[in-house]
Write a structure and sequence with these properties.
This protein is an alpha+beta fold and 89 residues long. The protein has one domain. The chain is built from 3 helices and 5 strands, in the order E-E-E-E-H-H-H-E. The chain has helices at 46-55, 58-71, 74-81, and strands at 2-9, 12-21, 27-32, 38-43, 85-88.
Amino acid sequence: MIKTFVHPINGKNQDFCVTLADGEATRAIVSAAESSETLVILEAGGALSAIKVRFESPEEVLDDAIRKAKDSGLIERAIALGEIQTGHL
């Protein structure tokens, strides 16, 4: 599942997308919509986060990931530094 969203960067609205990736740990990956460049990786770290992710709908997990990436400034930092930023779901 992929969800798109708009977020202002330097006063200009830009398009981004977030998707869930399953592996050993569930991850939400935030990318620039135009280039699919990975900017932020949010992982379900710890038992509580892993349980929460398993019981929430994928859409709720994506909404949480969007909110956390925006609120913590991870998207802006990734663009400014040119480095993938990480965090927890």
